[in-house]
Amino acid sequence: MINRLRCISREGSLPDDRPSGLTLIEMLVTLLITAILAVMGFRVIERFTVSQEGLLYQASTQRSLAMTWAQIEQDLMTVSFFSPRQRSVQLAQIPQGYRLGPVAWGSDKDGALSRTSLLDSNSMAFLGQVVSVRFTLINGNEEREIGAYSASEIERLSRQALGIAVAIQMQGDPLPLRKIFPLVASE
Known about the structure:
By secondary structure, the chain is an alpha+beta fold. The protein contains 4 helices and 9 strands; from the N terminus they run H-H-H-E-E-E-E-E-E-E-H-E-E. The protein is 44% helix and 28% strand. The radius of gyration is 35 Å and the shape is rod-shaped.
């Protein structure tokens, strides 16, 4: 009968003299696997955080750009009420940038696109990281920078519908952001 018990013990279960539990090697392998999973999880969370910050930055830039376009359009609406003779003075390239009626648009020393009131010199930055800004007058197929026109040419051209193209070159972008605004004919 004792031989029979030994036989079952050898075939079906561990011998009684071996201690139960984990060995040091098994514990180290478990810790290594846990550490690898923790590092992989950290990298995923880090990438998620970086991409979320990038999306927030892009959303902020888009909001600023929308406000910039709206303000430029509003300033051009002011210019559209001027007579051709007044437009010849109100649309010009000046040292601060480009004159659109009573305001000037240009890049400031910090690289931001700013709008400065010519009446009280009050300035407001609209868009950061601007490399350059360019205002051009579109007359049919011809497009030239506003400063390239003489006052008499702008006065003559103002009697027909024109377009003002604004191109903003942002730092790190290969192509400028560009929008064309209609400028109605004045009489």
